[in-house]
Amino acid sequence: MTRMWMTNPKKLCRQHLLGEHKELHQLIGSLNKGKSVKGHIEKGQVEIHNIKKRHKQLVKEMARRGYKHNSPLPKFKDYKAGKINIFENEKELVRRCKECRKLAKK
Length: 106
Ligand SMILES: [Zn+2]
Ligand SMILES: [Zn+2]
Prior knowledge:
mainly alpha, 5 helices, globular, binds zinc ion
């Protein structure tokens, strides 16, 4: 499952923060292998043009929490595609994850 949440990184629990970060790397892997990410774009799960920016945000938050990051972002070609509904994602995280729910209340 490849999915960018695009919500405030401070409000992501450890699992979801590290998960989204890992999925960004997987997404770039798919792009570089020429695998289609059309389904993810159509379902509003990724924003190709925001991968680099989002990776910076997540790494910054990981550093703040003292998590290790030793995986530089590989080069890849980005382009404008995908539109994520951040408000819906915030709601979904709170609904499905107890830890994210705790952080949302802070
Ligand atoms: Zn990374
Ligand atoms: Zn969570």
